Amino acid sequence: MIDTHAHMNLAEYEDDRGETLERARAAGVRGIVNIGIDEATSRECLDLAGKGAGDLYATVGLHPNSAAGAGDLNWIEALTDHPRVVGVGETGLDFYRDRATPVEQERAFDRQIEIARRKELTLIVHVREAEERVLSMLEAVEGVLGVWHCFSGTLDHARRALDLGLFLGIGGPVTFKRSDRRELLAQIPRDRVVLETDCPFLAPHPHRGRRNEPAYLRLIRESVAESWGVSEEEVDRLTDSAATALFRRDLASSAESSGG
Ligand SMILES: [Zn+2]
Ligand SMILES: [Zn+2]
Asked: How many A from CA of 107 to the centre of ligand 2?
């Protein structure tokens, strides 16, 4: 399993980050992508990837909730040269919160789309109450390789995203008792789905409301297997190969070759 969206750099793991990563490995998580949300956290993700075992990667970017007064975002471009950087973001639009205006958010999103395309990196897209606008911005450019993380849209949104070549990130909500995500998932091509925890947020059932961690990816995999009517091994095979296509590299390979 690859956890394609985690925030293991955050202070929630200050006291037990090493043990948490060990639990992830023991649970079968072979690669973790830590996602930057601003300049400071993007640098933290890079530090972690540099120090950790071969299975930690980073993305660099600015979250839409932090887009107020963003400036030129040249720092993102500069940080993408690091060899452990596999993506730009998380970026996107979040109209649920108003910490940054829509104009500020769109400007930051636009700039990150441009950097991701030019540097041939994967775009990590966060969407909350802004599905139409995100889709129309992405439909206006050609050829963006990216993931709509923690996909919460409708089947129609999913189809439009898939038409654009996007992958869909499936996380903790798919395990919730009343979730409609399992039904939706059953109708989505199996080669376009990747797993994610978004930890420390969005812990799956039965840990809902508490701190999430990459080891809980097993619970998400279980719900995906149920929804598709396949074995958990088959979910591993499908989602690992989707993650390799999404990031244009096998994120589990370096962990394997280092014997970890
Ligand atoms: Zn997000
Ligand atoms: Zn996130």
From this structure: 20
pLDDT digits (tens, 9 = 90+) for 86-132: 999 999 999 999 999 999 999 999 999 999 999 999 999 999 999 99
**Domains in the chain, number:** 1
Domain hosting 105: range is: 2-257
The whole-model pTM stands at 0.96
- Cα 250 to middle of ligand 1, angstroms: 23
What CATH code is carried by the domain that includes residue 23?
3.20.20.140
66-81 pLDDT per residue, tens = 999 999 999 999 999 9
Q: For residue 126, how far is its CA from the centre of ligand 1 (angstroms)?
A: 5
Distance CA 8, CA 45 (A): 8
Overall size of the chain counted in residues: 260
Cα(63) to centroid of ligand 2, in Å? 8
- List % helix, strand, coil for the chain (3-state, nearest 5): 45, 15, 40
